Amino acid sequence: MLMASSSTFYGFWMVLVFLLALGSIAPLAEARAFFVFGDSLVDSGNNNYLATTARADAPPYGIDYPGRRPTGRFSNGLNIPDLIAEQIGLSESPLPYMSPELNGQKLLVGANFASAGVGILNDTGVQFVNIIRMYGQLEYFQEYKRRLSVLVGSRQAHQLVSQALVLITVGGNDFVNNYYLVPYSARSRQYKLPEYIKFLISEYRRLLMRLYKLGARRVLVTGTGPMGCVPAELAMRGTNGGCSEELQRAASLYNPQLAQMLNGLNKNISRDVFISANTPKMHNDFVSDPRAFGFTTSQIACCGQGPYNGLGLCTQLSNLCPNRSLYAFWDPFHPSEKANRLIVQQIMTGSIEYMNPMNLTTIMALDSRI
Ligand SMILES: *[C@@H]1O[C@H](CO)[C@@H](O)[C@H](O)[C@H]1NC(C)=O
Ligand SMILES: *[C@@H]1O[C@H](CO)[C@@H](O)[C@H](O)[C@H]1NC(C)=O
Ligand SMILES: *[C@@H]1O[C@H](CO)[C@@H](O)[C@H](O)[C@H]1NC(C)=O
Ligand SMILES: *[C@@H]1O[C@H](CO)[C@@H](O)[C@H](O)[C@H]1NC(C)=O
Questions:
Q1: One CATH from 2.40.128, 3.40.50, 2.40.30, 1.10.3470 for 35-283+336-368
Q2: Does the beta carbon of 16 sit less than 6 angstroms from any atom of ligand 2?
């Protein structure tokens, strides 16, 4: 009697332990891989490994990151890829492709190929010298696929890539670090703004087709931020605290054409591969009414110097605000973690004006049924 009940009891615990073990493995296997391409808004540390001036590997970058350490993220804490990874159930963010730790099982999580300073065009960000331009990022993606195939076989590798989520954030630098970098830049002498934008969009389309051919099937594509309203531009070009009209005009021409191009691509390939994330609108919400989102300012950067803390780089010698959650901008160009959280919230649940044709919650539900 006593024997029987204790063995039943023992059996119950064995089953429970087994279920718990299953539970702790299952989410890892079920979360989809995540790949990231683009510029400093999404670079998680690739540039740390490159001889470039476009880097965020010294304090106070990372002051709110776990361990309070700089990692190469252009944020006080987490960046947009970190927060998306969290939302799709990954237990860790994909590592920078340049990281020597990206080996073995870590490859299954995905990889981050982004490199601060790059643009759609090869000639954007030349002043940063040694960065990984978009075609370079795609070449590394191919190399990644070969390494993954060695690990899990080519069929599994192909499946992992086609079921993955991809994020691509690029384009802002084609304005601020190319066309408008200096007066009479080569590109601004070559093209009037509307023609330059047409050229950018057609080059972006080529990049996205290449990504599609490499196997990507769910790709979040973000627009530019409010380029003319970032603290750097308020300091350099703004008029009486107003945004730079020229850069705002560029954004207002570029973003709708990007959305239209993505729409056209989806029509051509007859499926919703490319998802347009209206980051300009997301940013605009808190830039135009910072207090509604708990910010005391959307004009002054937390870290920097000069008017709006908008001049030069964020370094240990810069002004630094005590509470990063109260600032929409961490440095002269990049949002704070708090702002990144608001953006990712909209990516997850935004209505059609924010996420077209659908938000990430809907995508996750759709894809889990396949
Ligand atoms: C940029 O470089 C890639 C290869 O490095 C090339 O295929 C592409 O045509 C270049 N784009 C332009 C606009 O020159
Ligand atoms: C549409 O897609 C097909 C293949 O998917 C491609 O061959 C064709 O060039 C594309 N058309 C346009 C206008 O891009
Ligand atoms: C920073 O501000 C946020 C938002 O108002 C607040 O919740 C938090 O307690 C503040 N943190 C510190 C350390 O004062
Ligand atoms: C996502 O988008 C759909 C369709 O636009 C909308 O109905 C839904 O409320 C949004 N939010 C969530 C959490 O799905």
A1: 3.40.50
A2: no
